[in-house]
Amino acid sequence: MTRHHPDSLTLMEYSAGNLTEPHALCIRLHLDQCPHCCSRVDTLDSLGAVMMEHQPKADVSESMFDRILSRIDSDVEKNDVVRRDVHRMSPLQKLLGEDLDSLPWKRQLGDVSVLDISERFPGQSEQVVLQKLAAGGKAPAHTHRGEETTIVLQGAFADQKGVFNQWDFVVLNDQDEHKPVAVGCEDCITLSVLSAPVKLTGTFTRMLNPFIR
Amino acid sequence: MSTLEQKPARAEGRKDPWSQMLEKVGKNQDRQAYHALFEHFGPQIKYYAMANGLASHAEELVQEVFVSIWRRSCLYDWRKAAASTWIFTIARNQRIDMLRKMKRTSAEMQVETEDLWQIPGDNEDEPVTSLHRLMSERRIRESLSHLPEEQITVIAKVYMENKSHQMVADELDIPLGTVKSRVRLALNKLKVILQDQNV
Q1: pLDDT: is B39 or B131 the higher one?
Q2: pLDDT tens digit sequence for A144-182
């Protein structure tokens, strides 16, 4: 059961379709495991429908409807009907495959490994990074320049704010200095979307910051 | 309100004529019902496209949305969303899809728009709705009429013009914190925030 959820304002930006793909992915992964937030998004989607109804209307022509009918008639010939995908792959599997452990992780200092997957999202300005903290391992203290949205994909980590379990959602910014520790017997793997590179605050700064090139 | 909420979901859901029309399209490929949906929602979707910067593609978006409504109508389940909510999510997704395709080739799109933004009812595992979901549109419509105009303006910019909270703040020349508090006040009235507290 997840305990850390996206706030309503973020869910609203998601429902409106205003989030970038990496951010939407973080929300989607959380929603898949959180009926509570799904129900909030349902309400927000309904708000979108009511807003659309509330706005002015723009005339559409009958000829447009005829064009639509000819499109769907050609569909019938092709028998192009949508069926429900029974074995729908999660977007995470599509992006990363089945086994997170077999990814080409880059070992950083100590217990931290990282994998930059930004290029999987062409045309996005954010950095998208997988981070792995070995079971029981500690990450060095760091703050965040700009905003970092994180979802836990596997295992759990803890910092001074609490314990973050699988599918928990957390947003950190430059006010948050933390020193996460992987808890439990599994490696902790997170997906983070960074609006700007992380800044280390400890003594190791230059050598191990995985996010500053 | 409380007496309304005690009504069974089915009775409440059936009252919405657009959901009934959409069901007819899904079950019987009813073209008359489809045309009625086009006349009602077509102008809304065209305005939506014009408001969010797709003006030169507005008719194309309306067409894509309606072709998608036809193809997917067999999946529509009135218990999971009212027709207007379902159609809004399709319009939103088609807009996102159109913008994505303008920016890159399909080979570059490993994840489809619908992997990221789901249409209600697409996921079979999703439990059949609670009364809460069916009530939400009616409740939102009622609550919205009591909201101050400045809150509605902010929400309209987010949903219709697809502006981030920051962009809304810049445009209205007010602090980001003011935009956020207007949204929070509105969501509070709409009971979305209340749901936060029940976590």
Answers
A1: B39
A2: 777 899 999 999 999 988 999 999 999 988 778 888 999
For B169, list phi and psi in degrees, rounded to 5: -60, -45
pLDDT at A124 > cutoff 50: yes
Inter-residue long-range contacts of B156-159, CB under 8 Å, 24+ positions, other chains counted: B156/A51, B156/A54, B156/A55, B158/A12, B158/A13, B158/A16, B158/A18, B158/B183, B159/A15, B159/A16, B159/A47, B159/A48, B159/A51, B159/A52
Query: What is the number of CB-based contacts under 8 A between chain A and chain B?
Result: 205
* Domains of chain A: residue spans and CATH: 95-208 (2.60.120.10)
Higher-scoring residue by pLDDT: B42, A83: B42
Residues of chain A with C-beta less than 8 angstroms from the C-beta of B152: 54
- Chain B residue nearest residue A25, CA to CA: B116
The two tokens of residue A99 are 């086994």
Q: Which domains can be identified in chain B, with CATH numbers? A: 9-123 (1.10.1740.10), 146-199 (1.10.10.10)
pLDDT at A84 over 70: no
